[in-house]
Design brief:
11 strands; mainly beta; seven-stranded mixed sheet; about 120 residues
Length: about 120
């Protein structure tokens, strides 16, 4: 299983970024995919979870209404569109994956993770 994030960078407050996560080495269709972040001095925080085979996406309250988690149905790619970014969103953002076991669980427990991509908001 390999996950590779991209799309991070620096942006001014109020701006937007779109993160991408390319998955390989597993069957994409029966997976739970998610995003979490590590902000300086704070615990890891789960942001969003999506079951690839379904239509339901769940979001943390801190990003609900600002972040949008989608998949590319033609490719093994997922995206996290981040709008209205604020300095407190600064951190390293990670993509994660888990096998679907009836339902998708906490993204922080997903066993497969990417190397992360830095997001800096000034």
């Amino acid at each position: 299983v390999q996950l590779v994030e991209s799309g991070g960078g620096s942006v001014q407050g109020g701006g937007s970024l779109r993160l991408s996560c390319a998955a390989s080495g597993f069957s994409f269709s029966d997976r739970c995919m998610g995003w979490f972040r590590q902000r300086p001095g704070k615990d890891r925080e789960g942001l969003a979870v999506l079951w690839i085979g379904g239509a339901t996406t769940t979001y943390a309250d801190s990003v609900k209404g600002r972040f949008i988690f989608t998949r590319d149905k033609g490719k093994d790619l997922v995206y996290l569109r981040m709008n209205g970014l604020q300095p407190e969103d600064t951190g390293i953002y990670y993509c994660a994956a888990d096998q679907l076991y009836g339902t998708c669980h906490d993204v922080l427990d997903f066993p497969a993770r990417g190397q992360g991509t830095q997001v800096t908001v000034s």
